[in-house]
Amino acid sequence: MTELASWTAQDTEDVVCCLCRVPGTLVHDVAPFGVVRCPQCELVFISPRLRPEALQRLYDDVGYFEGGVYGSAVSSAAADADDGAPSAEGGWSPAMLLQRTWTAGRLALIDRERGGAAAGGRLLEVGAGYGLFLAAAREAGWTTSGVELSRTGAQHAQDTLGLDVFCGQLEDAPLASGFDVVCAWDTAEHVPDPLSFWRTVRSLVADDGVVLFSTPYVSSLPARLLGTRWWTLKPTEHIWHFTPRTHALVLARAGLALTRVIRSPLAPANAGRLDSLVGVARPIPGA
Questions:
Q1: Structural domains in the chain?
Q2: Which position among 44, 70, 156, 268 has the lowest Cβ density within 10 Å, counted as fewest Cβ atoms?
Q3: What is the pLDDT of residues 236-248, one digit of tens each?
């Protein structure tokens, strides 16, 4: 993955708050980037941040999905998909076990939020990565579609797993509305404009559907204690930093009501994550 120090000011651009359309106030200087907070709604974001073409280079790096909380989970899962069995070296790594725990927990959460209804409707995942969650959802009986910005990730999902995954931004994807479930796992912090993103999601989810997502959150204990040493700060790719309150503000403006927030690292859908949350939202009638 491209290191932070390799980016220069020429790779960056200034942006404003997606809700209030005003510049942010500097919180941390991590040159050539800045961590800023909106003086009106308190949404935290990165400005200056990478220009779109620089960001695409980052996501296309073949090593993007490796390391961090994922460990060797992606390469291990790719090997499993190719030969049908867990790899001896990485198939049972802690990172891979976490991936499987999250997937099972999130599928179970979807079932609970739908009142125990059997799988079998239409499910969209935005930010599908290598397609690991989508493949599990398909196995559970869902008709799946995905969107992924990384060409490397989308190609693996398409060619190795045989999934229907569009490579690009959500608003450019040729998708028919009426999805029963829309998922965005660790995605909203990456998108150019969260308000525009959630408005597009609202246009795609059925009126009686459900939206589930996960993100790091900047009001978590690790984020508050560690400051610029917070391992999830990542100003190159995590360009928006939410709290439950700012999630609710952005979602409501987009026509979605935040109905549940899971922060416990003991919950299977959020297992082992001290600085991340899982959220559930539903369409606001008439919005």
A1: 10-15+22-283 (3.40.50.150)
A2: 268
A3: 999 999 999 999 9
